[in-house]
Amino acid sequence: MSVTPELLLRAYSSGVFPMAENRDDSTLYWVDPDERGVLPLDEFHIPKRLARTVRKQTFEVRVDTAFEQIIRACAESNMGREETWINDQIVAAYTELAATGHAHSVECWRDNELCGGLYGVRIGGAFFGESMFTRRADASKVALVHLVARLIAGGFVLLDTQFVTKHLETFGAREISRTDYHQVLDEALRTEADFYSFSSDGNPDGVLQAITQTS
What we know:
Blueprint: H1 5-13, E1 17-19, E2 29-31, E3 35-38, H2 48-56, E4 60-63, H3 67-75, H4 88-99, E5 103-110, E6 113-123, E7 126-134, H5 139-154, E8 158-162, H6 166-169, E9 174-177, H7 178-189, H8 204-212
Parallel strand pairs: 7-8
Antiparallel strand pairs: 1-2, 3-8, 3-9, 4-5, 5-6, 6-7
Helix pairs in contact: 2-8, 3-4, 5-8
């Protein structure tokens, strides 16, 4: 069964998402974890050193200018991540979903080089974070900070991380039960939110202010 944008939206609205066993596997399976990773937007924690990096404007942060580059970079293997779950079918389906306005990328650039970023799916007031990558220190972390500022400013109520890693725990991510997740998801799907209401205008303090106002 091929994965279409319509099928992806129905799946996320039902609390499930697709993965491949590895990038070379042509088949997909649907995941509905007993414990779901979320990053509460009103409890987001930004480490002091990372806040300094954001203020230094080490990277130029762009949104939705290189979605396919981002997802393909997330699919690459590298040191510390020999296998990924993003196969060609996922790349094609999510790139098509991005063309409909329901998938987004947050990108960190330096000297016109893509240094890191992330992508995810948006429905209502929910953002489903999919994957991130970095080629320069802190690039993916800076992208996450900008994403959170954008979600807070746009009135989002759910940042779904699917799973919780040690990396995400430093920002405040935690696991909740499937039952609790569906309650939050239902609220988020009924919420009107605007992914484009936030613009830092090159002002890193605006990004940090958007976050610290909620904590």
